[in-house]
Amino acid sequence: MSGKPKLHYFNGRGRMESIRWLLAAAGVEFEECFLETKDDLTKLQKDGSLLFQQVPMVEMDGMKMVQTRAILSYIAAKYNLYGKDLKERALIDMYVEAVIDLNELLMTHTFQPADKKEQHFATIVDKATNRYFPVYEKVLKDHGQDFLVGNRLSRADVQLLETLLMAEECKPDILVKFPLLQVIEWTLNGQ
Amino acid sequence: MSGKPKLHYTNGRGKMESIRWLLAAAGVEFEEEFIETKEDLEKLRNDGVLMFQQVPMVEIDGMKMVQTRAILSYIAAKYNLYGKDLKERAWIDMYVEGTTDLMGMMMYLPFQPADTKEKNLALIIERATTRYFPVYEKALKDHGHDYLVGNKLSWADIHLLEAILMAEECKPDILSAFPLLQAFKGRTSNIPTIKKFLQPGSQRKPPTDEKFVAIVRKIFNI
């Protein structure tokens, strides 16, 4: 029993990746138990380890936590990455929920059938550069600070960074019009 | 300026309904401004009041909040419906995510093409009765309390009641194998603020019908 959180998922990004990012950003070492076959998943389901029969599942602090958002919120709060009060938390939640929406789009790109891929790619680029990135660029511009909320690192910055990097994998110059987002990438990479 | 929260959405359930439920259960009076046409939505967007160009949007405590979960979390925390500590909060979050998934399926059902509707309805019923309801039934059985978490009313209970009533609209006897959920439903429906919300004339919205689907498609271009 190591006391370290133990992550149960496939050996890939999916919905667990944001959790890996947040734990890592919080400096928390964790172990991983990879599901490699359908039987691995079935075993977990039959064990009663998965509250709603689904992964991600993270064993931590005596709980078998499921539901990505619940897990992320718990980690963020535990490691002081969730703002200092209710209002900061509200802002963080708003920023994070939108990042999750964009992340979903990016994540589902590889699963698109060949004939839909091009249009999906166009949707990603359109939403990223017209709906989401301008908001974060403006937030950083308006307060001039290094982090999105409360002048200190929060889950919003970590989850945004994850998504920025993923977006660049999709289209390397996607941040060309967003100088402050480029800076935050650079700043956070130094954390 | 009334000081009451102001909800911006279409005149129907959608993603705003859980917010209406939570405010009502917390005993918070709220106002609503309905988006009736595409132009109404465009105006909100052009006014710059929708952070990500989307609704729900709730004006509350000097903020224009967007993103359903962000809004719900804020309301739950503000009105002490989010447990007493981090662990209770974690359980509430897990339970709420489950009912969110289930209600999400039901929310989209009216928008499905006719040929897949029946299949999707069957899937909803299967998931409700084999994946979701057993979890909440067991939670109540294991601790024997009236509420899901911490022996006190929380967001998880309100959300579960909303999901149960929605599921019953899909299949009236859907709780037949869940005696504790039936009792839970009876008890929770009788909480004064919730009882009031369940009465005709409240701000609770009716089930989504074809007419409303058409309006939504038009406004949101879907």
From TrEMBL, chain A:
Among Pfam families, the record links this protein to: GST_C, GST_N
Task: Give the matching CDD domains.
Answer: GST_N_Alpha
- Family to which the UniProt record says this protein belongs: Belongs to the GST superfamily. Alpha family.
Question: Per its record, how is this protein called by name?
Answer: Glutathione S-transferase
Q: Does the keyword NADP apply?
A: no
InterPro entries from the UniProt entry: Glutathione-S-Trfase_C-like, Glutathione-S-Trfase_C_sf, Glutathione_S-Trfase, Glutathione_S-Trfase_N, GST_alpha, GST_C, GST_superfamily, Thioredoxin-like_sf
Which keywords annotate this record?
Transferase
Q: Which reaction does it catalyse?
A: RX + glutathione = an S-substituted glutathione + a halide anion + H(+)
Domain GST N-terminal: residue ranges: 3-83
Q: Which organism is it from?
A: Accipiter nisus (Eurasian sparrowhawk)
Residue span(s) of domain GST C-terminal = 85-191
GO terms, molecular function: glutathione transferase activity
Q: Where is coiled-coil annotated?
A: none
EC number assigned by the record: 2.5.1.18
Q: Which SUPFAM superfamilies match?
A: GST C-terminal domain-like, Thioredoxin-like
What processes does the entry annotate via GO biological process terms?
A: glutathione metabolic process; xenobiotic metabolic process
Automatic annotation (TrEMBL), chain B:
Q: Which organism is it from?
A: Accipiter nisus
The GST C-terminal domain, residue ranges: 85-208
Top class in the EC scheme: transferase
Using the record's annotation, list all stretches that form the GST N-terminal domain. 3-83
The GO molecular function terms of this record are: glutathione transferase activity
Single GO biological process annotation from the record: xenobiotic metabolic process
Give the keywords, sorted: Transferase
Q: What is its EC number?
A: 2.5.1.18
SUPFAM superfamilies registered for this protein in UniProt: GST C-terminal domain-like (SSF47616), Thioredoxin-like (SSF52833)
Which InterPro entries does this chain map to?
Glutathione-S-Trfase_C-like (IPR010987), Glutathione-S-Trfase_C_sf (IPR036282), Glutathione_S-Trfase (IPR040079), Glutathione_S-Trfase_N (IPR004045), GST_alpha (IPR003080), GST_C (IPR004046), GST_superfamily (IPR050213), Thioredoxin-like_sf (IPR036249)
Family named by the database record = Belongs to the GST superfamily. Alpha family.
Record protein name field: glutathione transferase
